[in-house]
Description:
Blueprint: H1 21-24, H2 28-60, H3 64-115, H4 120-124, H5 128-170, H6 172-218, H7 221-226, H8 230-283, H9 288-330, E1 354-361, E2 372-379, E3 384-389, H10 395-402, E4 410-415, E5 418-419, H11 425-430, E6 432-435, H12 446-451, H13 459-468, H14 472-475, H15 495-509, E7 513-517, H16 525-538, E8 543-547, E9 559-564, E10 567-572, H17 574-580, H18 583-596
Parallel strand pairs: 3-8, 3-9, 6-7, 7-8
Antiparallel strand pairs: 1-2, 1-4, 4-5, 9-10
Helix pairs in contact: 2-3, 2-5, 2-9, 3-5, 5-6, 5-9, 6-8, 6-9, 8-9, 13-15, 15-16, 17-18
Amino acid sequence: MIKTPDQVVQATGLTILKRLLPFLAPYKRQFVLAGIALLVAAGATLAVPYAFKQMIDLGFGAAGARSIHNVNAYFLALFGVACILAVATAARFYMVSWLGERVTADIRSAVYRHVVSLSPQFFETTQTGEVLSRLTTDTTLIQTVVGTSISMGLRNILLLVGGLVMLFVTSVKLSAMIIVLLAFVVLPIVFFGRRVRELSRDSQDRIADASAMAGEILNAMPTVQAFTHEAVESGRFGVTVENAFTTAVQRIRARATLTLIAILLVFGAIVFVLWLGAHAVVQGSMTGGELGQFILYAVIVAGAIGALSEVLGEAQRAAGATERLLELLSAQSTIQSPAQALSLPPCPDNGAALVLQDVSFYYPSRPQTPSLQQLSLTVRPGETVAVVGASGAGKTTLFQLLLRFYDPQQGLITLDGIDIRQLDLHTLRCAIGIVPQDTVIFSANALENIRYGRADASDAEVIAAAKLAAADEFIVKLPGGYQAFLGERGVRLSGGQRQRIAIARALLKNPSLLLLDEATSALDAESERLVQMALEAAMVGRTTLVIAHRLATVQRADRIVVMDNGQIVEIGTHASLVAQGGIYANLAALQFQVAAE
């Protein structure tokens, strides 16, 4: 569940739908056209009962040729009204359907654009499956309201108001009685409407839970099948689906009850009043045509109220969906570009200068466990610094702070003498290239996967980067070469091949600061040798930080930083650290002894 206590939407009930107005505002012209068509269609509908009255009283009440003439004229008028009604209804349907699709697309784009700008802290507590559910299921409900329900609601409001006016024109006494009786219909509709909204929100939450679980399991199918947990995961998903079904049934039951009560009360009141009207005709105080007109207008009013109860149910569901979407839009990232961002100086030929001063940091989800403590480090332009240490020492956290995925609670990080918090996020991240430990390959071909490093790179530049990363040799052997589809998450590649694609992507970016997080961890000995040679060539002219558990890959670094429990405990060259006989010497002795054996 996404909750933002300080920013969560405060509106309740259907008033929350007002928050959709900014998405509707750009399309005033379409709304005006739809409104005109709506008015014409409603007017044509309200004209039908009056035409029937005239036909009954003047057509059937006259004699001979005059009667036939009147009947023909009024039937022709009815056909003309039907033609106007058909054209206006078709125009209204087209305009409101267009508006529904357009506004839904805008909302999806706005929510997605906002979500991808949020910092990783947001995704520590939010499942991506829930976000996807809100982007798809919830926006579909809003599309139903904007594209259908609003139009139907306005149409039936017009018919209700127009029908009531014409009822009073026909018979004040009977109409007043209908109004009094219909007033008792409002209370149950309002009561059950609130209940429907609450259940609609719960229903959408349960669907989001099922989507989140399905997404997590489908992304881990090799692990699920390796541990023979297919039946277990199917059972877990089945329980989640049943919970969603149970909540949906409660919502459906509430809506059915709402519809039942509304129809029974409305039509019961109308039948009672019509019974009184029939007596009035028998007594001669009303004509047959007036009673017929009153009956048709009463049917229109009753139908409008029944349709409004349906629209209200849809609107209640959409209100729940809107609330969930607005929660996403109101979530604010703790990491923001400054209002007055500074610019980086021109990058020197030998890379960027990096300084960390007394940096302390803990993850928001683990506030009692510091990941970095009073860490200070100066990296000179063009220097290659290796960062080693046991798992959990804070190495990857250091990279996340450099990219400003998080900000430290204490201390300062500068790039070329400028506090990175004073830089625009895109400026900072464009100056940094990273090869992560967990390589991400997108569902595209090899060319586009490497071009992700720099969107405006030419094909020749992409191929050159692939050759530097020793990726060209296997790409050209794929069916289709650089146009070969690599599969979802790169399932058609080996771990080493995915790693080389990621290295090529970083090299194509040509950053002044290069971050390598276990860049050769997934490679065999031969591929590691090729990539290590490529990386050494790529390190020329840029500052490089290397995280590595395999110490053989960092022996030639200018300096080696040893971290333990979020602190720098040793720093020096490979030879000097071995001579110290500390943590690094013990790690080196252990690894090289195992390698020798």
